[in-house]
Amino acid sequence: MIPVTLTTARLQLDAVTRGDTDAVFEYCNDTALQGYVPVPVPYTRHAAASYTEGYVPKAPWLWAIRLIDDPALLGVIELKPGELRSAELGYWLGHPHRGNGIMTEAAAAVIDFGFSRAGAALVHIGWSAIVGNIGSATVAQKIGMRYEGMRRQGLPHRDHRRDAWVASILSTDDRAPQPGWPL
């Protein structure tokens, strides 16, 4: 379920559909992505279909990232609702689309949505990533997240736990990039 389509200068964030299954399959077979995102390995076409047809319809705030006027899937971004007007931000981008500011642009739009239009509007958005995921951490820093530290074995990753960087932003925080990140 997608609550609303979001647009930015370059991007349209809309629903992930069955038509995106092949792109999800391709992107989730990238070993770099698999190192940080807990997708099954090997990643099968069945796993991609289970994601687009099973998980996605139940996720209240999950968007496909696309260029405006281009239906090709570039990646996904999600706010996972939590308790007391909070959510966790998560995202991934297909390999060919990394390093161009696409995820930072998408994440800023999703943060704006979360703090202004999500239900009764969120007050806290958290983020975490496996230690060493510089790309994800750079996006989080650029959208104004405050680095809070490392949680030892804080993230499950397939059959084991990995150390995690954690950060958050409050609705009252400014969105300027913050110092103190281990980048």
Characterise the protein shown here.
The protein has a single domain, classed as Aminopeptidase, CATH 3.40.630. The chain contains 5 helices and 8 strands. With 183 residues, the protein is an alpha+beta fold. α1 crosses α3.
CATH topology: Aminopeptidase
User: So what's the overall shape?
Assistant: globular
The residue ranges in which pLDDT falls below 50 over 5 or more consecutive positions are: none
What structural category do the secondary elements indicate?
A: alpha+beta
Mean of all residue-level pLDDT scores: 95
SSE run: EEHHHEEEHEHEE
State the end-to-end CA separation: 35 Å
CATH architecture group name: 3-Layer(aba) Sandwich
The H-level CATH homologous superfamily, spelled out, is Gcn5-related N-acetyltransferase (GNAT)
Radius of gyration: 16 Å
Please give the count of helices: 5
Biggest pleated sheet: 8 strands, mixed
Task: Classify the beta-strand content into a percent band.
Answer: 25-35%
CATH class: Alpha Beta
Number of strands: 8
Instruction: List the domain count as a whole number.
Output: 1
Helix content: 25-40%
Strand order, sheet with most strands:
1-2-3-4-5-6-8-7
